[in-house]
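I would like you to sit down with the record closing this message with an eye to the fold:
=====
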Amino acid sequence: MSPKIELREDDAERHEVRKRILGAALSAFTEGGYAQTSTLEIATRARVSKRELYSLFGNKEAMLVACITERAERIKAPTDLPALRDREMLSKVLTAFGTKLLTETTDPVVVAVFRLAISEAVHAPKVAHALDNIARKPIRESLRTIMTNARSTGLVAGEPDAMTETFLGLLWGDLMTGLLLQATDRPSTGEVARRAGEASTAFLRLYPKPG
């Protein structure tokens, strides 16, 4: 077997071990809490030695940040959005954006990650920082770009930052609070589509075409 093939196999094995550790860590953190979870428990769940665990992640906080990072990657905003020619197209783009955002963010695993980041904000501040940089900021920046383009093409009158926050407020309402408190069930595909459509319609009523 050539060295090149061996390297690929080693990388694949390392990736599999890393995946197992992160899965075990996330389960342990969400079940017992970050502070109460030991690296020995994570290693036992992942069926690896503590030496392997530390060689891949260094410490427990790095594992938690990695868990947050991998899940947060799922909720990045779409980048292949069509050009905004009229308000009908803007409505479709906002609805598609809202549908994707709600679908990904209301996933139970993602909600658990948000809940974990909030509960451990004091003990592991890097976690909340990672979630903010990887998920929240890129989503707002992508939505702000849509709003900036809509204003520059004369489809709406308003400040991009304010319009971004308005749309997100219309889209979410108190849904995330309910999910975090486990007082609300995850919306169905139909409910997500309806919610995104209603948010787009309400937004366009609030921000009419200039003049």
About this structure: The chain has ten helices and no strands. Residues 3-32 form the longest helix (30 residues). The mean pLDDT is 86. The CA atoms of residues 144 and 164 lie 6 Å apart.
